[in-house]
Amino acid sequence: MTDNERLARGKKVREAVLGGAHVARTAKNRTPFNAEFQDFLMEYAWGSIWSRPGLDHKTRSMITIAMLVALGRADELKLHIRATANTGVSRDEVKEIMMHAAIYAGVPAAFGAFQLAAQIFAEMDKKAASS
Amino acid sequence: MTDNERLARGKKVREAVLGGAHVARTAKNRTPFNAEFQDFLMEYAWGSIWSRPGLDHKTRSMITIAMLVALGRADELKLHIRATANTGVSRDEVKEIMMHAAIYAGVPAAFGAFQLAAQIFAEMDKKAASS
Amino acid sequence: MTDNERLARGKKVREAVLGGAHVARTAKNRTPFNAEFQDFLMEYAWGSIWSRPGLDHKTRSMITIAMLVALGRADELKLHIRATANTGVSRDEVKEIMMHAAIYAGVPAAFGAFQLAAQIFAEMDKKAASS
Amino acid sequence: MTDNERLARGKKVREAVLGGAHVARTAKNRTPFNAEFQDFLMEYAWGSIWSRPGLDHKTRSMITIAMLVALGRADELKLHIRATANTGVSRDEVKEIMMHAAIYAGVPAAFGAFQLAAQIFAEMDKKAASS
Amino acid sequence: MTDNERLARGKKVREAVLGGAHVARTAKNRTPFNAEFQDFLMEYAWGSIWSRPGLDHKTRSMITIAMLVALGRADELKLHIRATANTGVSRDEVKEIMMHAAIYAGVPAAFGAFQLAAQIFAEMDKKAASS
Amino acid sequence: MTDNERLARGKKVREAVLGGAHVARTAKNRTPFNAEFQDFLMEYAWGSIWSRPGLDHKTRSMITIAMLVALGRADELKLHIRATANTGVSRDEVKEIMMHAAIYAGVPAAFGAFQLAAQIFAEMDKKAASS
């Protein structure tokens, strides 16, 4: 496989998971400073790992959310809560993952994630209502 | 629900997930120092969270492993790699979770987890062969 | 003890520690999405742990702040800095905990906590002045 | 205050907290590689922070243990569990700190700490019995 | 060396690294609550460690950025991205450090750092253009 | 660039950094369980990131060590302390990085790293003496 083939595969998987609106936003934000990092992510995160057949997108979505809650990475967590609309993780499942995370990563990790998810879901509902 | 009902429910779920051998070992290690903590875990981790119907045991097993890899909690990770024999997570799925974790928690987190899983799987194979 | 008894005990301890204003705010923010998590916290964090007699509220308040500084959990830290007004931890003691945390969790953890505490104390003084 | 005065003050406080056996062991392990780091710790951790009057040694001991549990720093945690014999933190209080940490840093952090404390207390009892 | 000598040395190194504007801002923000912490940082972080001759300021700047990215300490990271103008770390080198950090601390750590650096560099360019 | 070209480039860089003995050990430990992960690391960590010309190997070695100390990843840290023999980071520089890390990641992170480095350096000296 060449770099270009992997980039192409990564782009397709990423758009399926994060959605067209996110892809367009990232393309608009591309600068000389972040261009190589964007390409690296496309190949590494999306073309190599998310493209692997061993776990479906829904499962990858759930373990990604679990890890981001545990690590307290709020910005990336927002992306992946939005992505649940594409990966088929229901809001009830998001709730379960976060309650489960309270046990393994502590209550404050889950508490912050609940607030963040509520905010993202409200944005998503508002956008859906206005479209 | 009373404390005792919840303890009973927790015990059942915990034995289904961690296995009878682990349950016996923990009972043997019970001391005045850790007894209240053991009961607390039985009620909350097992009787309250793992007992919830919103995610099946296999999914809870996968997100638990993902979080423990991300947080670098090796001792607890060992328990939950062993538990995959009960929760139905295949070794190929464990591998996928750990490769996925390399993206979100960094290569060293995944590297340590691969070594630990290999060691646990070897122990499990040895025990199976000798029984 | 039944769930309801523990919920009742948790509510009382939580209000004593976090204060009536916080309790009212959380009640107002209760939604179907976070209701089960709120109840879980009430039983688990407040009804089971904070209710234990082995450490007084002031000591629990101090170790909670120390851990939240170390883990960098800013939102939860704000709650517990506000709670010092109820738990009897003085501002000088908050300062000492944060300087101590610089040694064990690193200077950036303490630095962020100092800024956050200054902001919360200013809000508290303003509210006190206007009431 | 000069460096030498602070070193002297740090030495005294450190010996009071960590005990003479630990001090002797560290002195024996002093090498050109770690000598400057040892001196830095003596001034910085012990001469500057632990020497401050704003919190007594028992309270500093408790918040140190809480942070080390949260951060998962096992080697340093061992030192500070041993130090409770000097700082006046009882074993029941160690237990309470660790159960409290389960809420804020997650169950695996507390679980590992309970095992470690049990092992240290057993060593301490054995040494006491043989002396 | 006395405290005052170390404070003086620390002040000089800190101003060389963080710049006069930052020093002025910190002086303005000095309060009874944070004064002792500011002095403590001046002595230890700056007077003891950054003043050591064993690594030059550029190298210290690079390892500081790498650690702050890994630990997710955003506020302190901003200071040290701004400081690259004084320490001689180029923007391309900042980019390389952050791409390197994606491997060791995970993609979300690097992703957040890229966004933060872009924002700081834009502020710096704007300030330079208006002066 | 094709996968195979990148693998080849990664192998070369990795051997230059980690040394032939490590490469041989990893090849011997290759199993169906870890083979894909090994290849993934070879391509991304080594073929994509360490191969970039923007930072030399010595600088990458230093920031890697700094991040591993901060994150407390002991196993990976051992590899990279050994690698300093190939990357040209002196033992005095390792000492400086670890003292610097005490400020940013806390004393316990640096303390553990000092002990680990001392042990690795002793092994290296012993091996050198016996060869």
Describe the protein's architecture and organization:
- 6 copies of one chain form a homohexamer.
- Chain A has 131 residues and is mainly α.
- Chain A contains 8 helices and no strands.
- The first copy, chain A, has helices at 3-18, 20-28, 35-50, 57-71, 74-82, 84-87, 91-105, 107-129.
- In chain A, helix 4 crosses helix 7 (91-105).
- The longest helix of chain A is centred in the last third of the chain and has 23 residues, at 107-129.
- Chain A starts with a helix and ends with a helix.
Report a brief summary of the structure.
The first copy, chain A, is an all-alpha fold and 131 residues long. Helices cover 82% and strands 0% of the residues of chain A. The mean pLDDT of chain A is 96.
Looking at this protein, list some descriptive labels.
homohexamer; mainly alpha; 131 residues; 8 helices; globular; 82% helix
N to C succession of SSEs of chain A: HHHHHHHH
Main interface: chain pair and counts: A-B, 30 and 30 residues
Shape of chain A: globular
Mean pLDDT of chain A: 96
Topology, element by element:
The structure is a homohexamer of 131-residue chains.
Chain A: H1 3-18, H2 20-28, H3 35-50, H4 57-71, H5 74-82, H6 84-87, H7 91-105, H8 107-129
